[in-house]
UniProtKB/TrEMBL annotation:
It comes from the Bacteria. Belongs to the membrane fusion protein (MFP) (TC 8.A.1) family. This is RND family efflux transporter, MFP subunit. Keywords: Signal. Residues 268-337 form the YknX-like C-terminal permuted SH3-like domain. GO terms for molecular function: efflux transmembrane transporter activity. SUPFAM superfamilies: HlyD-like secretion proteins (SSF111369). PANTHER family: MULTIDRUG RESISTANCE PROTEIN MDTA. The keyword Protease does not apply. The keyword Signal applies. Residues 65-172 form the CzcB-like barrel-sandwich hybrid domain. GO terms for cellular component: efflux pump complex. Residues 191-261 form the CusB-like beta-barrel domain.
Length: 340
């Protein structure tokens, strides 16, 4: 009897352990199952886009010159001040005229002598050597007078505005520029462009210039020069931009942005919100619906078009299903339930 009871107790314990084991296995199986995340997707398509290149630069006067005569002396009078608008040929500065007056007298004497010897030479009264000497003296006196006239009575070489004034009347000019003249109705800028755009940038291209000072205005400009060499350190090439400024809104020294419309290409565009940023880095990625499972794909970003952005990745192709809603909850391998 005791043996029979022992056998029953052993059998009961065995059934109880088996039942517990089965229940535990079911619980573990359920815990290992991953819950499908509800997401929305969009089909990846190639679209024709106009490639744009946006770069920043600083404006300069198209022409700018320091007014610095080649002779020294006392400044008799400066006819302009900072901000004065001048035209080509306007008198800007008059230096001490002593050297000029002496040169003028020398020129007049040389001219008189040369005209007299010229008449005598025509009648054969003087030798060719005397004639040549008189002509040389006249030419040298004329050249010296013209030089002193240009540097005593200093005139504007082009239309512009006075940007700086470093002397006052009566001061001794010693070589430092007296004035700075710059153009404001016509501006220029130099833009360094990545070498990968060499085939697409040409002289004569129309571009747009934008300034944060005038956020609603667009200033048309033209690529005037494309420099023929590439900087080996920065791998960029330089362009010179010509910017008409008839309203004088823009000013030399302003920081501006330029936009160049380049070639049209086919590109992969996705909704901007579909792209996620890896915490602690600048790496970007998105998720693709790969047969009902989330697949993480690292991407590089290109140009943005309103709510769409260009992406680059060897793991993306046209027709892929890009997760656009619910992607923030996903990890690689998460089961997906696509909803409308």
């Amino acid at each position: 009897m005791n043996s029979f009871l022992k056998i029953l107790v052993v059998i009961g314990i065995s059934f109880w352990m088996a039942a517990c084991s089965t229940s535990e296995n079911k619980t573990n199986t359920k815990s290992l199952e991953k819950r499908a995340e509800k997401v929305k997707v969009t089909t990846l398509e190639k679209r024709l886009i106009a490639r744009k290149l946006e770069l920043s630069t600083t404006l300069q006067g198209y022409e700018s010159v320091n007014i610095a005569p080649s002779i020294t002396g006392t400044i008799e009078h400066i006819f302009v001040d900072v901000g004065t608008k001048v035209k080509k040929g306007d008198l800007l500065v008059r230096l001490d005229q002593q050297q000029y007056n002496t040169a003028r007298l020398t020129f007049l004497n040389a001219k008189t002598d040369f005209e007299r010897i010229k008449v005598l030479n025509e009648t054969g009264t003087v030798s060719q050597q005397e004639f040549d000497q008189a002509k040389l003296a006249f030419d040298q006196a004329k050249e010296n007078l013209e030089f002193l006239e240009a540097n005593t009575f200093v005139r504007a070489p082009f239309n512009g505005v006075i940007a700086a004034k470093n002397y006052e009347d009566g001061e001794l000019y010693s070589g430092t520029p007296i004035l700075t003249l710059t153009q404001t109705h016509l501006l220029k800028a130099y833009v360094s462009i990545p070498e990968s755009y060499v085939p697409f940038v040409n002289e004569g291209m129309e571009i747009n210039v934008f300034s944060d000072v005038f956020p609603t205005d667009t200033f048309p400009a033209t690529v005037e020069i494309v420099y023929p060499t590439v900087d080996s350190d920065t791998h960029t090439f330089q362009t010179k931009i010509r910017i008409p400024n008839p309203d004088l809104k823009l000013r030399p020294g302003m920081f501006v942005r330029t936009t160049m419309k380049l070639n049209e290409v086919e590109a992969l565009l996705v909704p901007y919100q579909a792209v996620l940023k890896l915490t602690g880095s600048n790496n970007r990625y998105l998720f693709v619906n790969n047969n009902g499972v989330a697949k993480r794909v690292d991407v590089k970003l290109g140009q943005r078009f309103d709510e769409l952005i260009e992406v680059f990745s060897d793991d993306l192709k046209e027709g892929d299903l890009i997760v656009t809603v619910g992607q923030a909850k996903l990890v690689d391998g998460t089961p997906l339930e696509v909803v409308k």
